[in-house]
């Protein structure tokens, strides 16, 4: 068997410490958090440095052996799952911080380093690494890069691609590309870095990266606002960006259906305002001057109340009060407790279209399932909403129908079927809702150019 | 002749209004600002919309006819010059603003629109378009995209690639890719947009773009600082970014040699400080709250003086004083008056290495040419410096030797031979100083995948 020969050659070249067989890696987790089916890899390769990744890929390439790259396995679209017949290359041993350069404000890390380790090392060095998501303790920087991770602070700091100056990666052939550049400006030929970021392991294996560090914010102001209409929500966003800019670090909007459902079901949550409103916004701004920043934030909020943009607002007077506001926004982490069998979507639109998109989803879902629970919330500053749906006795057929409703709305309003989670296997049949045939054909041509035998993460994205 | 047939077919399909022959376009300028040699195109094609670009490229593709894309022809590396045998496609008729969406903060434009038109339309709509460079009146958005233009505000707002949400382009085959997306987050397959940005017309012709608009800053503070050492300069940068962040909108450093040369030769300039210093920094910060912003800026400057980071400083008390500071930084526009025959470089390094790089260039140039004028200045917040050199009686041989000095330093310190100007033909023989053989091979593979017959801007970049 070709696959057995490949595994044998890998083990010969890299040793049994690096190349582990199923009987050796035992009950190691080899599937992501998506819940999608995933097989057991023929072997798990755990290289200790870039040279070992290159050696492994060179051998796989010679044997035509397909490869799945695995980081923290926290993805939500099946992107790191084995389809059948692949070996897995895990970056879990390449988890070191190589260097912090305080003058250049950079941190050089190996791709297997967990996000939280990077965040903490940045803080210890007097800096801030802004990317943040719920999986921070488990997800790896390489996975964050492969999926162009987003999260809560995108409105101010951008996506993962905006946090990277240099990228080193290994092609299917075993050739190393990119490097540990620290230049903010570099217009010397094609930007391979941005091509690899978000390519979900299908073009190369990212091995090391130079991350950009930011100044640590020293002042944070947080408010919970109730608003009368979607128009008021977008007005608040644009005024906040104009007045507090570029301090706005979170602008999380929650539709009433979301708010009512989480408050009714999670008794640890407290309503921040006395009355009900059609929309709620968690507004956060960061700065570097505690007194001036707090004054400006409060003044702004007062003006928005006076102008009727905001109907009512609560200003967090302590960190714990701010955390209590965030707990309402972070309630999706608790969904399993009250809607274990839900369908969840991660879609984006132009900011102007988010309100229309949310309304169309809500109306169409309720028409079909009058008892549906429809919860909509998201990062409005980025045009990104999450839609969570539960219908009584939901089966596979219902789930497929809900997919169609959500993705039809996304296509009709020129949105994206994946704002931040990626495509993997979960959304690949809907890729053409967001990307044209010519785009997909171009992606395939690029894939063939860099991975001519289709060995890297086969069957993913397209 | 195949070329004559191609021109004939183009003229048949698109008409003589769109496809103009040399006797018709007459003394139209067809070379860029680089001063590098450029030929006369076989025809200038001036499409009125994306469909006409697609039609033209489809015909060129069928006839194997090479194409050079031309925008405002303000490039500095020969990227838009005809090498011989190409037709030119000029986007000068596609110069309309398609739409401004104030809720989504976007502007959709055709690629031939001049940068200044975009800036003014943004301002008129109550927004700000931050990309700015000297060529603003002539350069086009398409050219800004093809070269990933930089300029003075990169430290705060990023390069051209950071100003774009959607991109529509036409491949050599005539197929249209991308689109007018307004999503800030979109992780649905490979990011073709970032691949095309900075590819200097070798992969596709950019036809339309959705630009991101920013809130208009309403407060600006500007200071001219004298500093004792390069270490003090980097300290001022990191403290400014921590304390004023993210308001720092310019951090322009000038070495003494630059300052002395421009003040000695341009009698319109006035020294902002009484005494001489080894380094000068023009520091600018923008905000949205005039009173609080001015107070914070002055307070910060006082602290830097007290700490000895800054030896002396002048705070601009009026717009005209700020402009007088900027005139010293913008003196390169006047070089022609006192060093008409100079060599100029646009290189970048990690911020920590800029000081060392500047010193090596200066020392090595003076060793070889004791009477050399060496002027170094740049955008330190981006690691980008410009080096301008004049040696007595400079000939081609001297120029080549100076190239070697500067690019050797760049290679040795892992810098980039092109921070913002691009590669074109001017720097392509030095591309391997910044990019590895594997990188260049990958670029060629991608080029072949998207433009298999090598028809788009042949001979450029690599």
TrEMBL record, chains A, B:
<keyword id="KW-0560">Oxidoreductase</keyword>
<dbReference type="GO" id="GO:0016491">
    <property type="term" value="F:oxidoreductase activity"/>
</dbReference>
<dbReference type="GO" id="GO:0022904">
    <property type="term" value="P:respiratory electron transport chain"/>
</dbReference>
<keyword id="KW-0285">Flavoprotein</keyword>
<feature type="domain" description="FAD-binding PCMH-type">
    <location>
        <begin position="37"/>
        <end position="216"/>
    </location>
</feature>
<dbReference type="GO" id="GO:0071949">
    <property type="term" value="F:FAD binding"/>
</dbReference>
<protein>
    <submittedName>
        <fullName>D-2-hydroxyglutarate dehydrogenase</fullName>
    </submittedName>
</protein>
<dbReference type="Pfam" id="PF01565">
    <property type="entry name" value="FAD_binding_4"/>
</dbReference>
<dbReference type="InterPro" id="IPR016169">
    <property type="entry name" value="FAD-bd_PCMH_sub2"/>
</dbReference>
<keyword id="KW-0274">FAD</keyword>
<dbReference type="InterPro" id="IPR006094">
    <property type="entry name" value="Oxid_FAD_bind_N"/>
</dbReference>
<dbReference type="InterPro" id="IPR016164">
    <property type="entry name" value="FAD-linked_Oxase-like_C"/>
</dbReference>
<dbReference type="InterPro" id="IPR016166">
    <property type="entry name" value="FAD-bd_PCMH"/>
</dbReference>
<dbReference type="Pfam" id="PF02913">
    <property type="entry name" value="FAD-oxidase_C"/>
</dbReference>
<comment type="similarity">
    <text>Belongs to the FAD-binding oxidoreductase/transferase type 4 family.</text>
</comment>
<dbReference type="InterPro" id="IPR051264">
    <property type="entry name" value="FAD-oxidored/transferase_4"/>
</dbReference>
<dbReference type="InterPro" id="IPR016171">
    <property type="entry name" value="Vanillyl_alc_oxidase_C-sub2"/>
</dbReference>
<dbReference type="InterPro" id="IPR036318">
    <property type="entry name" value="FAD-bd_PCMH-like_sf"/>
</dbReference>
<dbReference type="InterPro" id="IPR004113">
    <property type="entry name" value="FAD-bd_oxidored_4_C"/>
</dbReference>
């Amino acid at each position: 068997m070709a696959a057995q020969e490949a595994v044998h050659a890998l083990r010969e070249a890299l040793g049994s410490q690096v190349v582990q067989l199923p009987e050796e890696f035992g009950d190691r987790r080899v599937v992501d958090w998506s819940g999608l089916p995933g097989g057991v890899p023929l072997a798990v390769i755990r290289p200790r440095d870039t040279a070992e990744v290159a050696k492994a890929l060179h051998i796989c390439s010679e044997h035509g052996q397909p490869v799945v790259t695995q980081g923290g396995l926290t993805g939500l679209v099946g992107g790191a799952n084995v389809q059948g017949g692949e070996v897995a290359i895990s970056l879990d041993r390449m988890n070191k911080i190589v260097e912090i350069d305080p003058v250049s404000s950079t941190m050089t890390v190996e791709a297997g380093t967990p996000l939280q380790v990077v965040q903490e090392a940045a803080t210890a060095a007097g800096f801030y690494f802004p990317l943040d998501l719920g999986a921070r303790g488990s997800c790896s920087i390489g996975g964050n890069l492969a999926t162009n991770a987003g999260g809560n602070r995108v409105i101010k700091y951008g996506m993962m691609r905006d946090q990277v100056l240099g990228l080193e990666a290994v092609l299917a052939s075993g050739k190393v590309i990119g490097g540990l550049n620290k230049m903010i400006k570099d217009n010397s030929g094609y930007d391979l870095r941005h091509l690899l970021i978000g390519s979900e392991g299908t073009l190369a294996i990212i091995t090391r990266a130079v991350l950009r560090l930011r100044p640590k914010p020293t002042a944070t102001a947080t408010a919970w606002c109730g608003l009368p209409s979607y128009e008021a929500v977008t007005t608040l966003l644009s005024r906040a960006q104009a007045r507090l800019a570029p301090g706005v670090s979170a602008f999380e909007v929650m539709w009433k259906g979301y708010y009512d459902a989480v408050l009714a079901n999670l008794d640890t949550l407290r309503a921040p305002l006395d009355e009900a409103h059609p929309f709620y916004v968690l507004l956060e701004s960061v700065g570097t001057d505690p007194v001036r920043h707090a004054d400006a934030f409060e003044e702004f909020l007062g003006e928005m109340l006076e102008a009727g943009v905001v109907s009512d607002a609560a200003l967090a007077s302590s960190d714990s009060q701010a955390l209590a506001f965030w707990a309402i926004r972070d309630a999706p982490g608790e969904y399993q407790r009250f809607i274990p069998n839900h369908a969840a979507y991660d879609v984006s639109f132009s900011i102007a279209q988010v309100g229309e998109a949310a309304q169309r989803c809500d109306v169409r879902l309720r028409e079909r399932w009058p008892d549906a629970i429809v919860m909509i919330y998201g990062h409005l500053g980025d045009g990104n909403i999450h839609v969570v749906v539960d219908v009584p006795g939901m089966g596979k057929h219902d789930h497929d129908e809900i997919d169609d409703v959500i993705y039809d709305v996304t296509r009709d309003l020129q949105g994206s079927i994946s704002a931040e989670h990626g495509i993997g296997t979960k959304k690949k049949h809907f890729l053409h809702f967001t990307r044209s045939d010519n785009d997909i054909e171009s992606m395939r041509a690029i894939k063939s150019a860099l991975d001519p035998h289709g060995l890297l993460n086969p069957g993913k994205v397209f």
